[in-house]
Amino acid sequence: MKKRRLAILGSTGSIGTQACEVAQLHADRFEVVALTAYASKEKLFEQVRLFRPQLAGLVKPIPMEEIPEDLRFCEWVFGPEALTLAAQCDCDDVLVSVVGMVGLSSVLTALKHHKRVLLANKEALVAGGHLVMEAAAREGENFLLPVDSEHSAIFQCLQGAAGNPVKSIALTCSGGPFRTWEKEAIRAATRAQALKHPNWVMGQKITIDSATLFNKALEMIEAKWLFNVEPDQINVIVHPQSVIHSGVEFEDGALIAQLGTPDMKLPILYAMSYPERLPTGGDRLDLFKLAGLTFERPDEERFPSVRLSRECMLAGGAAGCVLNAANEVAVGRLLSSSESAMMPVGHIFDTVEEVLQHVGHLPANTLEEVFEADRLARAAAAEYLSKVGF
């Protein structure tokens, strides 16, 4: 059987690292031909030694002299073009697991060069959903496969739809560390408190987003584009045990859900091997060990991120792009704030709402308009945070 050739953008991050692990586990099925990282050069060096790709790149440039002699067998690329070149290299699939707006360009480049995209970047659909979906549709069915656990779960459930229309999407979330906190306590929470996720080990940015439910707000917009549903068809369900990863309700009332252990290797490998299923090597779900499954409605007073997401979907244009950019700036400011002048979590909500009011109406008909909306939103967010002392 011919191996699928895989390019991994963001190979040293959480998703990229696990993709490398399952590619190594199934070395008879996958060949890693390109690896890129932002700045984690030592970790990337280890991966290049292991997989011996045709191309490797660092977005944050370093002198070629810093590349070890034994790793100069492949083509090395530095700067933002590392992502562009990897996305169009001689491969079958491109796993886009980079963080930020660079993911949008990477996805569009890969699709333009007829590569199947395994999507683990939220910004691509949140900021430029119509551009991405149009590009994917031109390539054919299943040229864009979700890697996020929730969207992968929905996609898996839809495999049994047999053409039946979807009534609604059940988009689950753990609720994060602030699930039971009062509104004012959430607003006053610190960085350290927001980084204590109860179920998942992730990067700092996505962990903060999970605490504020902005991660779910972004996923709501992603679901709208991926599954062609309206905002009122997307139901966010707080499910603290993280066993049901999401589901689909059909017109007859049947709800098909996908269950599994909280292990990202399953959705990563499912996208890599689709339409086949290969073992991840991880723990399997033991239903007899489940103490119970609980479900709650998200409180939009305590977590306005859910309401803001719905408003953005209804507004259209660049509203999703603006929400994402403002949140990214605010989270960055929280992560970089000093212990003596710690920014409270509540300023993330305030920043996003303020920026949406000022620039949320911008158009997003072209890639240039999307990037301009992103630029203006970031500037507005930075200005607002400076005004309030952060």
Detailed description of the structure:
This protein has helices spanning 14-25, 41-51, 81-87, 102-112, 122-139, 149-158, 183-187, 191-194, 204-212, 214-227, 265-273, 304-315, 319-336, 346-359, 367-387, and strands at 4-9, 30-37, 55-58, 75-78, 93-96, 116-119, 144-146, 166-173, 234-238, 244-250, 255-259. 45% of the residues lie in helices and 15% in strands. By secondary structure, it is α/β, with parallel strands linked by helices. It has a domain at 4-146: Rossmann fold (3-Layer(aba) Sandwich), CATH 3.40.50. The strands form two sheets. It has a seven-stranded parallel β-sheet with strand order 4-3-2-1-5-6-7, sandwiched between helices. A four-stranded mixed β-sheet has the order 9-8-10-11, with helices on one face. The longest helix is centred in the C-terminal third of the chain and has 21 residues, at 367-387. The model has no long low-confidence stretch (mean pLDDT 95).
